[in-house]
Amino acid sequence: LHAKDVILCLEQQLKAERARSTAAAAAAAKVERSHDEFEAIERARDDAKEEAADLKRQLDIVTQKLEVAAANEMKLLVAAESADVKVAAADQRADLAERKRDEEMAAGAPPGGGG
Q: In Å, how far from its chain's centre is CA 31?
């Protein structure tokens, strides 16, 4: 082979080696991007898990508050019913006292049985 042929052959080998090197660098960059994307997905997943845990804690707190509110509402309903019963009993006593007074007045006795 002539020196010129050897040089041409070496140049072709160099071009082929550069092409392989460029392809390898591109593949390495692609792998690096994929790795970065995977890490970003992992971080997003972890963030979503934390957010879900926070939301669950908030939901538990709201549920507890609702349970307390429901218990308080029941206490208020019971108290209101008790108050209604007491008012009805007081009304009955007032009606009876008024009737008794009316009967005593009709009979000519002084009110309150005065004596």
A: 39
Alpha-carbon 93 to chain mean position: 52
Residue 105 CA to residue 34 CA, distance in Å, equals 103
Q: Of 48, 54, 92, which Cα lies nearest the Cα of 62?
A: 54
Does the predicted model carry a pTM greater than 0.85? no
Token code pair at residue 78: 């019971």
Residues 6+ apart with CB under 8 A from 110: 104
The stretch 58-84 carries a mean pLDDT of 96
Residue type, 67: E
What does the domain layout of the chain look like in residue ranges? 3-105
